[in-house]
């Protein structure tokens, strides 16, 4: 089924419909929908103006007993306005059809229903849709074309045969996101660009929240119609008051509620009946179910409850102190305190906001909604996020990646406790803490993560007017040698390289500077140079092809202050001034000035990381030949850790280089296995509650003959007793460097792929890198080079074979959501070869999900 009684979703004009799978109780409405179609529409749908046996057709579509007949309907309130359906033609192919009420066409109803039908069909094993469409039905052909799925259209006389693959390829997901962007902008315009606003709970008391909100709306110059609801006043702050929402002269676009918590649902009901389109609920402690029921019934958008409010163009519907300056920074935050702190510090820099949304308890409008709003908003030049939880992290990742290609996206790190710290039995799962998963999400999506509001504004100051560096090679120019050395040290700590200027640059610097100066990086001009000389030194460094950016460090002395020589150039220049009163300031010419060289270096590193991410190619799906049928057979219906022979079969189906073996039940079978290999073997106990076999004494190595194998088997049986269910016999692997490659699944974030040192080093050093699947080639680079020992490992061993293992493991995790945990440990490197000597896989029933499906947030399901 789709959702809990249906999913609410937005049409192209921002209105809301409910989509759900139809059943027997919908037969009459479905029949009426078809009968109400004009003759032309009926002909285009059925190739006839009077389709025969329509009642039987409708009955089959809505009958749960008719296998392979599925219908998804769109409802506006109780009215069925459209249906998308399919009928199975084979195990994985279905014929698709679409009907939309003539009055409701051209609003995106059909496309939205098809998206939900595609998602439902894919979860049920359907891989292709086909349809025969009359050539004259250009509108239906356009719907199929615009859907974004990969397919073919083959003309045949007056009919076009359409064949569509249902795999969620990038073109399809981008098309879905583009449609959602348009719908969200239409819907959120009532919230962020309202033509009229009412404050319900406005009070004459200056100390009240309602009074503060109304005061900010007036002071902020809101140019639309402004009302207040207060039954005991005629005017407040020059704004006309009315006894109730019902008494307002018009239905406002936006209502801001600052009433006691018990009254919120009833006031929301009044707003819905009056035709209000959006609510901002400032009040905390509101009963969620009652408020959500009202919001859904009246199709209103909701910010809050328990929030500071919203800021838009000439709209300050918050209770913050002081005037909110307009600018180019879009802010969405779950914390009211962070919202207030961010506004304050941005104002100090002279940077204003395009919009600010304090989501509070986040019952409806979320960070994902605002990313869609800001993606193509020309006023917004940078986006700031403070998210304490992720309702749909996989969708967030895709949306943030799209936005970050156009403008910087910054996130203040916060606890991700909702992801849960699992009690992990495997090495990989023990790595997958909420912080690791969240940081992988941010890194791959191109989000610049910071650790507080102060660091946030430090980075924003640089991004305001500073170009991004083309690399990580930095020159330091200072009139105080010691501070220049500190700046160079800070660059190295932050992963930047201290540049080596060309000899011509060094010679030119020597000619400019006193004999006591140092012309080598970090360049020390001494305290006697004037700002003109300092400026010429800066130009020489910027002109050097080996320099990507410059940090200047100046201190005023009795002889002068060369800070005036710091100027904007074609390359990034960050300034450090030791008499800087705050952490960071912005000069009129856009130069960001920092109080501490360490902060300037950290900010420059953030800029370099963004530049590096922007140079990455767009991720493409891995093209691998796999035996998916065999793999599905292994995992289907199982729950728990797989036996070793099942693990080998699963991994081999994905082409992974796994060391084979034989699962035996007695010593005679073990001896026979050893003889078949004709070489020394390892015996590995398969026992209840034994996961880490080496630690638990369940591994015996180098058993070369029948006597040794028999004794080994006997010792394992004595050690584990009734817990022993079998022994896995493997040929001894060639020795080499041992790595760990693993996966741990998260139902919302998706599979996290982990790599690092393996074998005995796994727990000893805890040296690992992590990334969320699906993996791009750049993500594979991060995994291969992201753990500390990687340079030493891959100086000696070929990384290509490990790259292929990571690629295949990630694809396995994508295609098989039942795989909850997977450890290849050790993965042994020998020359240019790798082999998984030991592997563990835990499977669990997995409910298929579609994180990219267009639907409004439902707190009850955590999306």
TrEMBL record:
Gene Ontology MF terms: acetate-CoA ligase (ADP-forming) activity; acyltransferase activity, transferring groups other than amino-acyl groups; ATP binding; metal ion binding
Protein's name in the database: Acyl-CoA synthetase
SUPFAM superfamilies: Acyl-CoA N-acyltransferases (Nat) (SSF55729), Glutathione synthetase ATP-binding domain-like (SSF56059), NAD(P)-binding Rossmann-fold domains (SSF51735), Succinyl-CoA synthetase domains (SSF52210)
Keywords: ATP-binding, Nucleotide-binding
InterPro entries, alphabetized: Acyl_CoA_acyltransferase (IPR016181), ATP-grasp (IPR011761), ATP_grasp_subdomain_1 (IPR013815), CoA-bd (IPR003781), GNAT_dom (IPR000182), Ligase_CoA_dom (IPR043938), NAD(P)-bd_dom_sf (IPR036291), Succ_CoA_lig_flav_dom (IPR032875)
Location of the ATP-grasp domain: 648-699
Regions annotated as coiled coil: none
Domain N-acetyltransferase: 17-169
UniProt KW Nucleotide-binding keyword: yes
